[in-house]
Amino acid sequence: MMKGLKKWRLFSLLAVLTVFLAGCGQEELSTLLPAGQVGKDQFKLLMLSSGIMLFVILVVVAIYVVALIRFRRSKLGEDFIPEQVEGSHKLELVWTIIPIILIIILAVPTVYYTYKLGDVKAMEEVNDDGKAKHLVVDVTAKLYWWEFEYPELGIVTAQELVVPTKEKIYFNLKAADVKHSFWIPAIGGKMDTNVENLNKFYLTFDKESEGLKDGVFYGKCAELCGPSHSLMDFKVKTLPRDEFNAWAKNMKATEDAKSVANANADGEKVFQASCATCHAVSGAGQGGAPGPNLASFGDRNRVAGFLEHNEKDLKEWIKNPQKVKPGNTMPSFENQLSDQELDDLAEYLLGLSVEQ
């Protein structure tokens, strides 16, 4: 009976490990398949530290096995006392010098890459026209969504970060309410977003996201921030520079937009009456709105960051946001909008698009 239980425990452990390891091969999500130079540098450190730990484990296991075999009681008898090495200067030097060497091997590249990633002086560089040489994105984490503002371009979006490939992208990170953490696993390590201070770092995006599952990389909040922490996702679209410029131009063109081509007019009226206080449908301007910017809502692949991007899930989200994503700040409209108004509003929102 006990043997059977132990087998089931082992099976359960393997099943759990399988679930966790299932994400290791997903290019859009895995830290083991880095798609940016920062991620590649950090992967090198991961492999170096893992190699050192494996070396130490193998040495310790080898010593243990040798001692176990060489000095076993059945071979040497009950009264055998092995040579005492207490106070041996040679051994003391060996087990002091070797760990120091291993620590140095690990410490030197770690310090180098830490300072390399922390070098954000280029954020302040400008060209002859006084414009920033590098793209800077202001990231604001909120309960439970993400806002991305491009100050030099005069545009803002939410839940979906769009960046050009093959260049350094600099980030200003802050939180509007509680501590969060900005993390794109396939691109680079996490960085906290704090309410009290601004964190800065850069990432590079070497691969276009178009060929990936859903056409995006996945971003996460990596700091426990409340009941919907696990649902605080965002998506990252990486484009060639010319396509990014076209996207930014389209976002800028939505300035003062009050309607959308082929939009549901009745849905627009419902939006203006019920949603416009918190949400904008113009991608031009500054961040800081109470709710996510919806200028490109129709181009997204998720509702509320994790639901399927369809009319059914969108209406469920509008009717009862707390049921879908507990702790968020969006009010419920279940008893405020009729079924027809919900249909019109959902059709209008899904029609908000800047992609051609």
How does this model look, in words?
The chain is an alpha+beta fold and 356 residues long. It has a domain at 136-350: Sandwich (Immunoglobulin-like), CATH 2.60.40.420. 38% of the residues lie in helices and 17% in strands. The chain has nine helices and twelve strands. The strands form three sheets. The protein has a five-stranded mixed beta sheet with strand order 3-2-1-5-8. Strand 2 (145-150) and strand 3 (155-158) form a beta hairpin. The chain is elongated. The model has no long low-confidence stretch (mean pLDDT 88).
Please give the CATH architecture of one domain.
Sandwich
Report Rg: 27 Å
- Strand order of the biggest β-sheet: 3-2-1-5-8
Which fold name corresponds to the CATH topology of one domain? Immunoglobulin-like
Give the termini separation. Answer: 65 Å
Order of helices and strands: HHHHEEEEEEEEEEHHEEHHH
Largest sheet: 5 strands, mixed
Number of helices: 9
Supply the helix-strand structural class.
alpha+beta
Secondary structure: helix percent: 25-40%
Which geometry do the CA atoms define? elongated
Measured by DSSP, the beta-strand proportion falls in 15-25%
Low-pLDDT stretches are: none
- Average pLDDT confidence is 88
Kindly provide the name of the CATH class of one domain. Mainly Beta
Tell me how many strands there are.
12
Task: Specify the CATH homologous superfamily of one domain.
Answer: Cupredoxins -  blue copper proteins
